[in-house]
Amino acid sequence: MAEWAKGSRFTCQTRHNRIELKESISICERYSSAPLSIHVELPSFKTVMMAAAEVKATCLVHTPFDATVTWMMDDKPVPSNQVNQATNSAHIISNLTVSVDQWKTLKRLTCKAEHRCFSSNEKTVNVRGHAVTPPSVEIKRSVPDILKGDRVVLECHITQLSSSDLYVTFQADNVDMSGKLFVDPPESPGPSSTSRHFTVSQRYWKSDTNFTCKVNQGFADVFTSNSISGIFVNPSVELFLVPSEESGPQTLVCSGWGFNPQIKWFTESQQKPPSTTDISVAADGRVSVTSQLHVPQTEWKTVKVFTCEVSDESLNKSERKNIGLCSVTPPSHQIVSVYVQAPPVQELQNKGHVTFTCLLVGLHLNDFSITWRVGGNKCSPGVQREQPVSHRNGTETLQSFFNVSAEDWHAHKQVSCEGKHKCFNQSYEDHISKATVNPTQPSATLLQGSGELVCLVFGFSPASINITWFLDDTKELLDYNTSQPHRGPDGKFSIQSHLRLSRSNWLPGAVHTCRVTHATITLALNISKPEILEDCGFLDDIMHADVRQDLGMESWYMAVTFLFFFLISVVYGVLATLIKTK
Questions:
Q1: 385 with 398: CB under 8 angstroms?
Q2: If residue 102 lies in a helix (H) or strand (E), which one and from where to where?
Q3: pLDDT at position 245, please?
Q4: Nearest CA to 98 among 89, 88, 108, 86?
Q5: Fewest CB within a 10 Å sphere: which of 58, 286, 315, 571?
Q6: Residues 241, 293: contact at Cβ < 8 Å?
């Protein structure tokens, strides 16, 4: 049987009736059409990397012949002690045993089958594989795992990966902290990408630990990622107010950074749900979280304190910051000027009550409270408060009115008005009393302008004064405008009233009267239209005034002085305007 398998030729010879018959046969002829094939099976990349000492390659020769199978490694014959062989009816199975170190340096492996019935046949395989293109390797925090609550997961992301076996390892301070994470080569040709994840053990949770990942591609190529460090840090917090309309809701923004920051809002120890929350991961592996809280204007103005807490349950650390109306109010908004004005003259004769006015000048006056006191006692009934009025220079004015009994006023009780910001203890006050008013009689003059009469009153104190206009001393004229009293550097007040003239009442011989009523005196200044009147322009002619009470030459001097300073101020204003426009 062995000779048959080796291809020996067998002949059968016989003789019959002197006829010699002969027939020969061999296995080569018998299976001349049988195909021969060789298949080499190599150990997988994972098998080689996980093997302790040796790996095995197998050569399957599909043939009915008892062929001789030999191996060559890098074109060099393999010793027979590394090969064992088995045979069945259809195959010859040859196993080659190679050390792991020798296999990692191997380039080519050849399996050769020889038999006398056919020409030698062989199969050579490339063990090392083709040259690989360096992939791009990046280590980072895994965002999906962060969102799921698993905050200690690192991701090694590999792109531009060619078709080759590889495994990934994660390192802490250049020392492997993970096992070999094998990646099967992609089936499709061309570059591909893949990722591997690793959960970091708590023993590596140190602020100065440096994390990397390595890609071992084939048996010789190693590629290292970037490094991230300092991710296990205590949380930090920033809290600020977004500028918005003063009358609308206020938006608070809280930002937290760290390893695993989480934001909670509180007001007066009660937790509040956030309006929005966003999470992102920076390139250095730290997580940032931003949360917004919309606070209604009515709640914001109640001087509540809003707290943003950024905590890290993984590290058992937390940080807090507070914000509120008082913490964002600058010092300039805490100051207010307060002025108290005595009742109008016409009310001083009332027996019931008199009205005082408190004027506040400052910024954001709705944040100030106003407190009235009479004789040192706080009063609340009878107080009226108007809405603040905004001015071009950015300031506001606010008026409050308070009714005081005439009896208290005439009893020389002090009336005070106090303005105080709701966030601060300091208050600003002005006060007045009948005893503190140093009365000064007013001086007055009557001027004629173009289409109007002007009554100038000055040098009086207190500020309460009343100006009315009459025609022929009987008919009260109403088409006039009177300014507010203006306090001068000497503490005395001045005021002016403008009467508009019409053809129906500005007739020759008609007498117009400006009546000034003050606590110290009542004045009446008269003027009439002469038969012939030259047009002298606005405030360019001083008519003769018949004053029922003799004012003497002092009034004329005061009038001339007032006109002189008035003209100086007009010239100064014109020059200043020209300079600014240039």
A1: yes
A2: helix 100-104
A3: 74
A4: 108
A5: 571
A6: no
